[in-house]
Each structure stands twice: as structure tokens, then as C-alpha cells.
Amino acid sequence: RKKLTIALAGNPNSGKTTTFNNITGTRQKVGNWPGVTVEKKEGHVRFGDYDLTVVDLPGTYSLTTFSIEEIVARNFILENRPDVVVDIIDSSNLDRSLYLATQLRELDAKVLFVLNMADLAKDKGIVIDEEKLSSLLEVPVISTVGNRNEGTAELLKNIIQVAETGQGPRAERRVRYSRDIEDGVAVVRDLLQAVEDKDFPYNPRWTAIKLIEDDEVVRDMAVKALGDKAGPILEETARQRERISNLFDDEPEILMTEQRYGFIAGIVREVVKRSSIKRVDVS
Ligand code: GDP
Ligand code: K
Ligand code: MG
């Protein structure tokens, strides 16, 4: 039998645990993530020729490192390389969910989007063009109503499909930053790429982005993985950060966060339609 590891990611209250229960039934184990008091749920399910291990990641809005939940979720994806990361999205709050979604894409994980809470979106008169969302981010999209266990079989089928076909992010489906930032990312990425694979197991573009954003956890990871090869790369990173800061009079991480939100706003404009009948204007 073939073994797959599936991680469920998503914002708090998007329906991760509900989906987890729908998939795994009663075959689950609850504990803590090593070293921290964040709950870890792991379950098992047999589907077709596959044995799936399903992990319910802590709920997060982002994969930066401002909270222990974000660090736990990100480290699991980086270090355990799950075969598929299922991003559980609250369809009635798509824009809020897309920040995490774009970060998962950036991490080079194989992602499947689940538009959960499809019933709430419908009640609010929100219509999401799933096909367009799928093609804009090049990620398969399905919709579910978790608390009614609707769409679970379809979800399992799609998980297997994503694991098998190996959808990988094409460059143009990811956030592209402004030219001066992309130039800095490329310089650092090239230095990382020049290091032998066995010495550096992480995605070079993602790592370069995080270094330019001055992410401490990734800096420590790079030092640990690269040893004395890290020095010149971190020096170049500092030069690039300074160049960008001088150009825009703002820190790269602030500019990059803004640009991600811009990218997300563009996607929301293209894929979210509100039906005129149930439209509620909140001002
Ligand atoms: P988590 O924080 O992501 O693990 O979210 P939970 O699975 O705990 O779900 C949060 C709440 O939303 C619970 O009360 C669920 O019963 C409910 N819920 C889950 N999926 C759906 C859905 O598709 N539609 C509706 N209306 N409620 C849902
Ligand atoms: K909850
Ligand atoms: Mg939960």
C-alpha cells in the first residue's frame, strides 16, 4: 500500500478540525507538538490503495513567525514535506484566507484549496468563481460543507490526485514583487542555489524571500544548514535589504507584505461575485 502524509492548514475557525474528523473518523490521536503546548491531532484513513496520515495543523492567518502556531505549522511543512497541504478556506471570508494561501504557494508545497463553509457563502450571496481561482493560483479547488460532511469523498479523491500528479507552482502563479525586490531576491536565491542540494534542503526562492524579509527562524535555519557558507550569503542579504530600504524608505518586509495584499486584492476582484439579491453592504 502507498503511504501519504496530508497536512490540513487554514485560518482559525475555517473548519479544519471538522474536516479532519470527516476524513479520519475515529482513528485519531491527540497530543502536543514537541516542546510546545499546542495541540497536535493526527489521524489515519485508508482510501483506495493508500494509507493516509492526516495532520491537523494549528490555525494561522499567515506563515510568518509572529506566533508559536505559525512556527509549528511552517516547520511541519518545511521539515516533514507532506505530500499534500490541504488549505481549508472559509468561503465567506475569502480575502482573509488568501494571505495564508499565497504563502503556502510560495513555500512550494503541493496545495489543494477547500472552499469550506460553502453554505455560509451562499447565504451571504457570495459567489466564488472556483475555476478562475484555480487557474489564477494554479491550485485545484473544491467546495465543501464540513459540518454536514458534504464533499468529503470528493476531497479524498482530489488529495490523491494532487499527490499523484505533482502539481508544482509555476513562477507566474505566485506573488511577484516589484522589480527592485525581485532583483534582491534573485541575487540571494542564486547564491543559495549554488550550494549543493545535500547542504541546503529548502526551496531557494522561498528562503531568499524570507531572508530579505529578515525572518529570524529562516536565518537560523540557513546558518544551521550552511555552516560557514552562510556568512557571505547573509552579508549579501544585508546589502540587498539596505539597498531596498534606501530606495523605498521602508523595510523590505513591509513593502513585501503590502505587495502580497495587492496581489490578493487583484485575485479577489477577479473571482468573488456578489449576487445583487442578497447583497449586504457593510459600512
Ligand atoms: P477550526 O478552528 O479550523 O478547526 O474549525 P472547526 O472545525 O472547529 O469549525 C469551526 C466551527 O465551524 C464549528 O462550529 C463547525 O461546526 C463549523 N463548521 C465547520 N464547517 C462548516 C461549514 O461548512 N458550514 C458551516 N455553517 N459551519 C461549519
Ligand atoms: K476552533
Ligand atoms: Mg481546530
UniProtKB/TrEMBL annotation:
It is found in: Cell inner membrane. Belongs to the TRAFAC class TrmE-Era-EngA-EngB-Septin-like GTPase superfamily. FeoB GTPase (TC 9.A.8) family. Mg(2+) binds at N21, T24, G25. Residues 3-165 form the FeoB-type G domain. Probable transporter of a GTP-driven Fe(2+) uptake system. GTP binds at residues 10-17, 35-39, 56-59, 116-119. This is Ferrous iron transport protein B. The chain holds residues 4 to 286 of 727 of the full protein.
